[in-house]
Amino acid sequence: MRDQLAIYLQDHLAGATFGLELVERCRRNNEGTDFSEPLQELSDEIRSDRGTLRRLMHAVGAEPSRLKNSVAWVSEKAQRLKFNGQLGSYSPLARVEELESLAIGIAGKRALWELLEHVGRSLEGYDFAALREAAEDQLARVDSLRLRAAETAFGPSDVMAPGRS
Questions:
Q1: Which residues are CB-neighbours of 42 under 8 A, at least 6 positions away?
Q2: What is the pLDDT along the chain (165 residues), one digit of tens a residue?
Q3: Are 137 and 107 in contact (CB under 8 A)?
Q4: From the centroid of its chain, how far is CA 131?
Q5: How far apart are CA 1 and CA 38, in angstroms?
Q6: Under a CB-based contact definition with an 8 Å cutoff, are residues 5 and 60 in contact?
Q7: Distance between CA atoms of residues 133 and 149, nearest Å
Q8: How far apart are the first and last CA of the chain?
C-alpha cells in the first residue's frame, strides 16, 4: 500500500512542478496587467502547497521522482511551442489556455487533498479538509481570471451568439 501511495504522491508532485512553472510563466507574461497580482498570489500559494506535498511525502517515506519531475518541467516548456495565433509574441488565446491548464491542475490538486482527507486520517499534522478548501478557492479565482481572459480573447458574449457572423 505504501508503494502505491508513494507513486500517487510522486505523480502529484510532478503535476505541482508543472503547475508552478505554468503559473510563473503566466504571471511573467501578464506583468503590468490586472492579471499580474492575482497570478502572483496563486504562484505563492502553489509553491506553498508544493512544499506541503513534499513534507507529506517525507512523512510517509516517499521520495520525489527526479524522472517524473523532469518530465513535468520539460512538458511545461514544450507547451510553450503551441501556436496561439501570434508568432513570437504572447496572445490573448495563450492567456486563456494557460489559465485553463492551470485550472485543470488545481482541480487535480483538490482531488488529491480530498482523497487524502478520505483515506489519510491517520496522517497527523495535515488538515486535508482545509487544503481541499484552499484548492477550491484557488480554482474559483483561476476560473474568474480565465473567463475575463476569454472576454479579451473572444470578445463580448453577444458576438458569439448563434446567427451572428
A1: 23, 27, 102, 138, 141, 142
A2: 578 899 999 999 999 998 999 999 999 999 999 999 999 999 999 999 999 999 999 998 888 778 776 776 666 665 655 655 555 567 888 899 999 999 999 999 999 999 999 987 667 889 999 999 999 999 999 999 999 999 999 987 655 555 555
A3: no
A4: 14
A5: 39
A6: yes
A7: 24
A8: 57
Q: Which CATH superfamily is domain 2-153 in?
A: Ferritin, core subunit, four-helix bundle (1.20.1260.10)
Taking the C-alpha atoms of residue 47 and residue 44, their distance in angstroms, rounded to an integer, is 5
Report d(CA 22, CA 65) in Å as an integer.
Answer: 19
Within 10 angstroms of residue 126's Cβ, the number of other Cβ atoms is 17
86: its cell numbers: 501570434
Give one word for 155, left, alpha or beta, with left for phi > 0 and alpha for psi -120 to 50: left
Domains of the chain, residue spans: 2-153
